[in-house]
Design a protein that fits this description.
Oligomer: single chain
Strand order of the largest sheet: 1-2-3
Number of helices: 7
Radius of gyration: 19 Å
Distance between the termini: 52 Å
């Protein structure tokens, strides 16, 4: 029945393997039988994966930015403010744009790029948010040591629009970042690149492990 559709959205899990890399078995399973004119992948995949799925027309990568946690900002939206549309060929981009224009109105900005860049943007977004959580967890401890008021610190600091308030909560009973996305995506990109090629992300992961270990102390 799915293969009778004009387009299909691929939204399957890509959890981490034991070595931290992304488990793409569900992706490979879907593309072993999916034969629609346009396939739009929403699952997070390592950069370069969309290109390796070639073999029939119009495979496009469109990362999702819904988020998780307490009242994630995009979760309740009927449409996001933007979509990253990753496709290597102009006809693929047009095909994706035609499908998505039936789902979202003109207030949703379509940002076109190649597939590898779109895949990289998704990992970079989660890496940045993980780094931000780690930053505020560290400054929480610094405020405790200095005797600074944490609530006033966050309020004053985040009034600078360049910093913003998202991902600034620090939970005393759940330090660091966890969940289904940030840890696995940090691990996946480090497994792909190697720690020596991403020293900042390596440090973020190490510091987060220290924060998370305190939760079990």
């Amino acid at each position: 029945e799915i293969n009778q559709c004009d387009a299909a959205f691929v939204c399957v899990p890509t959890p981490q393997n034991s070595d931290g890399s992304a488990d793409l078995s569900a992706i490979h399973d879907v593309f072993s039988w999916l034969r629609v004119p346009v396939a739009i992948i929403r699952s997070t995949m390592p950069p370069g994966m969309t290109g390796r799925l070639r073999g029939w027309p119009y495979i496009i990568f469109v990362p999702e930015f819904i988020g998780e946690g307490v009242n994630a900002p995009y979760a309740a939206m009927r449409q996001p403010p933007f979509l990253i549309i990753g496709a290597d060929e102009e006809d693929e981009r047009q095909a994706a744009g035609q499908v998505l224009s039936h789902l979202y109105n003109s207030e949703c900005e379509f940002i076109y790029t190649d597939a590898t860049t779109a895949e990289t943007i998704k990992y970079a977004e989660n890496a940045f948010l993980a780094m931000k959580v780690t930053f505020f967890n560290e400054w929480y401890d610094i405020c405790q040591k200095l005797g600074a008021d944490w609530g006033q610190f966050v309020s004053g600091l985040t009034h600078d629009y360049r910093i913003g308030r998202s991902h600034t909560h620090v939970y005393e009973d759940a330090r660091g970042f966890a969940g289904r996305c940030l840890p696995k995506d940090i691990n996946a990109i480090l497994a792909l690149l190697g720690e020596e090629n991403a020293p900042l992300l390596t440090a973020v992961r190490k510091i987060n492990e220290q924060h998370r270990s305190r939760n079990n102390a």
